[in-house]
Known about the structure:
By secondary structure, this protein is mainly alpha-helical. Helices cover 75% and strands 0% of the residues.
Amino acid sequence: MPILLILFIFIPLGEIFLLIEIGQVIGALATIALCLLTAGLGAALLRQQGLQTLARARQNLDRGMAPAMELLEGVALLVGGALLLTPGFVTDTLGLICLVPPTRHALVRVVLARLEVQYRPAGPDVIEGEFERRDDDHHNQR
């Protein structure tokens, strides 16, 4: 089943179902308040985790190391923040998974394991040098 179908059809339907069910148990206003509370807490957590990730990236750069893990964590934080700002409990849960450090690290490791990095070292196919363009007088007369 295509991932976009799941993302744009089934997740919103699940959100609507959960919002209705929870609204029937705790009431509509309490459900709305709970959605706003999770968005606020998520924004605070996003800020804190984002600053920590940025600090680690700067430390790696200062040591001359590439902040690859921190960059991928930054993407996970961005996705998590967007999910937390989307009203609903399913997206809030997915957003928290992206924001909480242990689950975020595990998520990034899973993504890294599935990525295929290709590196092509400079070898016999690479020719370094300088060139100068010279037009023949023959070509200039035409």
